[in-house]
Known about the structure:
13% of the residues lie in helices and 37% in strands. It is mainly β. It has one domain: Acyl-CoA thioesterase, double hotdog domain (Porin, Beta Barrel). The strands form two sheets. It has a 13-stranded antiparallel sheet. The longest helix is centred in the N-terminal third of the chain and has 16 residues, at 39-54.
Amino acid sequence: MTQPIADLSADTRVVSLAAAPGWYTAELPDHWNFRTPSGGVLMTTALRAMEAELADDSFAVASATTVFCSPVPHGPLEIRVEVLRRGNAAAQLRAALTSTSLPGPGLEVSATFVRKREFADLDQAAFPDVPLVADAADAVDDAPHNPHTRAPFFRHIDVRIAMGERWWQDDWNGGEARYARWMRYKTPQRRADSSLDALCLPPLADTMPAAVVQGLGPSAGWFFAPSLDLTVHFLQPTTSEWLLVLAYSRLARNGNATGEVEIWSEDKKLIAYGNQMMMLRRWPRRAKAATSD
């Protein structure tokens, strides 16, 4: 039976609790799970609550940092938002997201929203040497452990490989810790002005472990890489549906790895930049299974 394609904006919708100012609820389905919900999707949910609390379309998110305290399952969520400062040019907010089914903190997000201002532009970002989307290879294949067919998250995103090996197959070689994929939400994520919804970017940014897998090579065995934190800088709007997500890792040591990500539009504009620290963990069973992302 074919499963319906999920809509990220609908799945991360928040509802204000009128009796409790600054409090919001959400009901996150399992559509966006790896082993548990994508940290980037949880981050998006918190940012939607921040947008709702600001209630001012003249502000757009510029940067956000999430600290992941404990795993958050899909299901009912609570988000508490605090406006730290609201100025003429920028506003800073903080949000704590928790599961209603588990005690303790889930994650905390700090974000800055800004108003557009006129100033001189600088753009020295260089588009990477990778195939454009029309020439990139579809990530879907018949390999039994392909995360693009196994993980619920990827059922709702089209993916084409622009750089790197099919590391879920039996015969592949490691190399430079860089991995690039063209990605497109199957349900378009649009604002009222037809631009891409910037809040759909954190889930795409939270796919950096693939670069670590590529760098460590098959001798490292199968592992997953839960996020310890995730920062995203939202640089400029786009109308592009296909986005190039280029992840790279500079260092993995002592069971942790650092990653960085660039997100590009089809017209070769740098849309967002992110970085994170992740924890490298062995799968609890010896049988092969796909990494988290």
